[in-house]
Amino acid sequence: MPSKSLPIHLLRGAAGIAAVWIAVRIGEAHPIGALGLVLVALASFRGCPVCWTAGLIETISRRR
């Protein structure tokens, strides 16, 4: 689903990427925390990263 504004969509993507990166870094020591961060990432992406990318393309195309 596309966002109404490009900056908001990019912020959601950055939050999702950060959550995934942190989850990978802490996964071995804190698996439950990593699982929670993966859920945060899915919520930030509003689904999978591919869905986020499709929404980004739609958001950009709507601006034109």
Account of the protein in words:
This protein is mainly alpha-helical and 64 residues long. The protein has one domain. The chain is built from three helices and no strands. It has helices spanning 6-26, 31-45, 49-63. Helix 1 (6-26) packs antiparallel against helix 2 (31-45) and helix 1 packs antiparallel against helix 3.
What's a concise summary of this model?
With 64 residues, the protein is mostly helical.
Q: What is the number of beta strands?
A: 0
Structural class determined from secondary elements: mainly alpha
Specify the number of helices. 3
Average pLDDT metric:
92
Terminal CA distance reads: 17 Å
Which term fits the overall shape? Answer: elongated
State the main characteristics.
single chain, 64 residues, mainly alpha, elongated
Question: How do the helices and strands line up, and which of them pair or pack?
Answer:
Layout: H1 6-26, H2 31-45, H3 49-63
